What does this fold into?
Amino acid sequence: MNVSRSSVLRAGLSSLMVCGVVVAGGTPATAATQASEGLAPLVGLAAERILLADKVAAAKFGTSSPIDDPARERQVLDQAASLAGAAGLDVPDTVEFFRAQIEMNKVVQRGLYEKWTQHPELAPTERPDLATEVRPQLDRITVAFIDHLGATAVLRRPTPRCTIALVVAEAKTDLRYDLDRLHQRALHGAVGALCG
It folds into this structure.
C-alpha cells in the first residue's frame, strides 16, 4: 500500500487527538506532545546519519572497499558502549540502537549500489574522503545520540504515547528531509526500537 508522508503525519496527529492530546492552540503540553518534541532530535539525528550513507556509498562505489566493514563497525559500537556507560545509559540497549544505525546505513548503501549499477549515469562523479569528511560527521552524531538518548529515557518507555510520538516525529523528519523510499525505510529501521 502506498501511503503518502503527509497522510502518515495527519494520522499520527489524529491519533494524538484521539488520545486526548491537544497539539496546538496554546494548551499546556501533555506527556505525548513532550515526547514528540523530545524524540524529534533523535529521529532527526538518525535521518542525518542515514543521509550520510550516500557519501559512504559514493566513497566506496567502484572500489575494492566493501560495504561491510567489521573493524569500523566494532569501533563505532565500542565507542557507543563506552559513551553509554559514562552517561549511565543501558549499555546493551545502546549498542543495539547503534547496531541498527549501522545496519540501516548499509541498507542505503546497497540500495544505492544497485541503482548506480543499473543506471551508471546516476553514479557519483566525486568520491568523498571517509576519514576526513564522513567519519567526523558520524562521530559527531554518535555523541549527540548519547546526549539525546539520556535526555529522553523517560519519554522512551514502551507505551502507546511513545509510539504515537515516534510516528509523528518520524513523519515530520521524513517531510523535513524529503526522504525517498529507500531512505524512509532505513529511517524507520533505525528508530523502530526507540520506544522499547
